[in-house]
Each structure stands twice: as structure tokens, then as C-alpha cells.
Design a protein that fits this description.
With 182 residues, this protein is α+β, with helices and mostly antiparallel strands. Helices cover 71% and strands 13% of the residues.
Length: 182
């Protein structure tokens, strides 16, 4: 189970890294909203959830249809080689409806309706999880980018202070090298 979860996390990371990599390399990070819309429209689990919802809706319509009249058309056609003609006759249209099945059709319809709600909730849960993961990665990227910028700025300040200190000591006649102190 742990191996499966770690594989799933790696796959999710790879998916998100593909979304983040190109804009980050170009230096123009996309907005969080655009990344969320890209991931939510392109992620496989969301596509699968949409298909499952569509399947559940089809089952619902199929179950609903069993409660209504169902037309049946009976037609007979014949072909005679000698005369070279086709003769046909429509004998009629029959409408049938099951009067009593012990509530089977109603229960199937209710079950299908509940399945639609269940699949929609699973889809929403998947969207929330993906959104959370995208936001987490996005904010981690922003955090580390800002941290790197601050560290570079701090290093620049330290280098400036080091040069100033060395020049100050040289101006008073001391030969001081700040690298030797550290």
C-alpha cells in the first residue's frame, strides 16, 4: 500500500512539475488561477470522474425510461424474385408498460440518482484535493523563490560590508582579510 501511495504521489508531482516547469523556466510564473484551471481541465482523475458522472446519468435515464410506455413497432416485409417487387405490411404499434414489478423500476431510478450524486461528490473531492496540491506546490515555489532572492540580497550585503571593512582597515594601516577571519 505504501508503495502504491508513493507511486501515486510521484505521478502527481510529475504532472504538476510539467505544469510549473515551462513558465518557471521562462521567468514568467503563471497565476494561481490559470494553473488551477489547467490542472483541473487536464488531469486524468478529473476526466475519469466526468466520464463516471456521464455513465451514472445514462443509467438514470435508462432506469427512468422503464417507468414509461415503451412503443414497439411490428412490421413484416417480403421479397418475391419472380415479380421483382417488395411487399410489406405494418401490422401495428404496440405500447407496453409494466404495471407492477414490486417497485423495481422506482428503486433502480432512485439508485441511479444516488449514484449520480455520489460520483459528483467524488469528483468534487478530487477537484479539492488537486486544488490543494497545486496551491501547496505553487506557494512552495513562491516561498523558495523569495527565499533565494533574499539570500542573494543578504549575500550581496555581506560582500559589501566585507569590502567596506577591508578598506577601512587598510585605510588605517592594517592588512586585514575578512576571509581569514571566518
Amino acid at each position: 500500500m505504501k508503495k502504491f501511495l508513493s507511486t501515486l504521489l510521484i505521478l502527481n508531482f510529475l504532472t504538476f512539475s510539467q505544469v510549473f516547469a515551462e513558465p518557471a523556466i521562462k521567468g514568467n510564473l503563471e497565476t494561481l488561477e490559470s494553473l488551477l484551471s489547467k490542472v483541473l481541465s487536464a488531469h486524468e482523475s478529473i476526466k475519469i470522474a466526468r466520464l463516471r458522472i456521464d455513465e451514472a446519468k445514462e443509467n438514470y435515464f435508462s432506469a427512468s425510461a422503464k417507468q414509461f410506455l415503451s412503443p414497439e413497432l411490428e412490421a413484416y416485409f417480403g421479397f418475391s424474385r419472380e415479380a421483382g417487387s417488395i411487399s410489406g405490411a405494418v401490422s401495428g404499434i404496440n405500447l407496453t408498460q409494466t404495471l407492477f414489478e414490486g417497485g423495481k423500476a422506482g428503486l433502480l431510478k432512485a439508485k441511479a440518482k444516488n449514484l449520480i450524486k455520489e460520483e459528483e461528490l467524488f469528483s468534487q473531492e478530487g477537484k479539492v484535493r488537486l486544488s490543494y496540491e497545486v496551491k501547496e506546490i505553487y506557494f512552495l515555489y513562491l516561498y523558495y523563490s523569495e527565499r533565494e532572492r533574499i539570500e542573494k540580497e543578504a549575500l550581496g550585503s555581506i560582500e559589501t560590508a566585507k569590502k567596506y571593512t577591508e578598506e577601512l582597515y587598510k585605510s588605517v594601516g592594517f592588512n586585514f582579510n575578512a576571509d581569514d577571519v571566518a
